[in-house]
Amino acid sequence: MTNHRTYQTLSIFDADPVAVGSDGLEWVPVRRRLGIAAFGVNAYRAVRSGDTVIEDHVESPGQEELYVVIKGGARFTIDEESVDAAHGTGVFVAEPDVRRRAVAMEDGTVVLAIGGWPGQAYHSLPWEPIYVAQAAMREGDWASAADTLEREAGEHRDTAIIRFRLACCYARLGEDESALEELRAAIEVNPEVRVRAEQEGAFEALRRREDWPR
Fold first, then answer.
1. Are 33 and 1 in contact, with CB atoms under 8 Å apart?
2. Backbone CA torsion sign across 124, 153, 144, 171
3. Which helix (H) or strand (E) holds 74?
4. pLDDT confidence of residue 150
5. What is the rounded CA–CA span in Å between residue 123 and residue 121?
6. Is 104 exposed, middle or buried (0-12, 13-18, 19+ CB in 10 A)?
């Protein structure tokens, strides 16, 4: 990556990635690295053919997404319909609630994803800081994961999902009071978090406390 007075450059193929998932999926946080505020753009790299290159998901309400295969090839599944996309192919999904995923058809496949909302300014989403913290979470380094979430969350610090993830980290660290404080705040923002908390392994001991949020 280079920084000049009037522009920046970033090699999507060579940039240090963030490992996400357990099957070799790599995320290049293009928007965050370049400081882009006008639109969402990220890249995903699969090490091997058959690996996930776009995770199974739906988009946030109203967001359109364009996926462009810039290296290799990918097999997309869009609303259970299979689409093979060779190098240079764009796959546009206008409906945010349509499920989508993709697997690499060649080693080293790279997909660029560009998204935004029609008629409104772009804003970042809380999954980005969670992705940044995922490597530490997978390694069980809960202190580093909590520090990363606190540092990277920014405007999303008080969202339900960030508070829930922090609660999980603090529970794993044995910091019960901090875990419960974050969990109560998450439930206040989104009451549906309560159901997820009842199933979360990190809270097994906390659920036996009298002050567990019920």
1. yes
2. negative
3. strand 73-78
4. 96
5. 7
6. buried
CATH classification for the domain delimited by 127-208, as one of 3.30.230.10, 3.30.420.40, 3.40.50.880, 1.25.40.10: 1.25.40.10
Cβ partners under 8 Å of residue 171, min gap 6? 179, 202, 203, 205, 206
The per-residue pLDDT for range 50-60, each reduced to its tens digit, is 999 999 999 88
pLDDT tens profile 149-180: 999 999 999 999 999 999 999 999 999 999 99
- Give the type of residue at 3: N
| pLDDT bucket at 10, cuts 50 / 70 / 90 | very high
CATH assignment, 2-116? 2.60.120.10
Q: Quick one: how far is CA 32 from the chain centroid?
A: 12
- What is the pTM for the complete model shown? 0.85
Beta bridge partners of residue 116, listed in sequence order? 64
